[in-house]
């Protein structure tokens, strides 16, 4: 048992026991990834335990993933069809932003998951600008927006798991996802699942966490502790007193109303998250096969809860006519955009909401969980002696990542020409991070380049900044004749158009794909039921 093996591990400092405190998406992704990548032939195989309180419900509203989730699911050994059916999931190919520039009807742009066609960005932007055909930037340089408008799946049924004709992530039911991961981790990966309530922390002489005290099982000892306790941050916050860095100066949204709206059988399933701006924030709309997840994000300094409820109701009336609104009870969520000053202290690593949270725009929450676990596992400390150096590197990397995410989210707001007080406040110079101000100055005469975001593992690379900058109406340099050395970009744009037509002709709709998958599995399910 974990607690009984404590003395052996402490003698040589070996990291043999990982204790994850907290369940939900963060906890169970941590448990499954660590257990799946552990070496069963090691002299002392790694033990993984997850302690999940039966008294604390998970938040369960993170319903969008990045394409990184495909590799994560493959690594832990989940078949894609099992995931899609078990989580009522669908395919996500990016985000469409409605009404962010001026609020006028019909105004929209895409941030797809496929990068712009391969050409020098300066030549590509100049070619798009010179074409003067009125096509939005993303539509001109990438075939994916066309696929999204047609509600197409990114893959054919015959393709191997996690392969696609277009890059994709998922929309999913977050509660079902945690349940699926828990069953898989406990039954297939050997994770020890403890349903108990943590009531305290026992510290070692060097300040590390020696054990967590539980209500029913007493002390659970470990060598590395993963804090997945959500906003409570039981270990990293309450235990280690690591300060919280408030980023609401740049990102003032602090509340959301979330609801699950029914959909008609056979109705289209959207290929992208739809983010619709309103007077003091925005609304998300995530399509699943059996429902839609819809939420109103807002800043309480500019909008009351009742006004937000009215905005949510008006959006549903316009997008889901015939819905019985009296049966929908929105969940009210409060949050503060920010993160811990450090994420790894001693033998405790914070993952998920315990590390921080920024408003749900661009769905960075789950990918930060994945990236945190990848960074841990790519250089896992075999002993306590090697932990502090790794922790320092981890903290530097993730402070960089959080800063870049804040800047990228702010980019969506600072370019808006909407005239409501909320949007004017977003454009105030003192709310714009200094580095973003410098980049915006550079981008007046050239596009975002890789040199502006130089790390090989940028969360949002230069291509993402191009989509938002030009989608929001940012100045497109290079008007006039395309440079001679850039004529290849003109041909590249023509190839995007050809590729878009081919995909439109060859890919099934999301609804057709997912309904056929369910029909294929139905006979097997009936056989099991008998």
Automatic annotation (TrEMBL):
GO terms for molecular function: monooxygenase activity; nucleotide binding. Signal peptide: none annotated. L-tryptophan binds at residue 362. Coiled coil: none annotated. The active site is at residue 92. It holds the Pfam family Trp_halogenase. It comes from the Bacteria. Keywords: FAD, Flavoprotein, Nucleotide-binding. 7-chloro-L-tryptophan binds at residue 92. FAD binds at residues 23-26, 198, 353, 366. This is Tryptophan halogenase, putative. It comes from uncultured Sphingomonadaceae bacterium. The lineage of its organism: Bacteria, Pseudomonadati, Pseudomonadota, Alphaproteobacteria, Sphingomonadales.
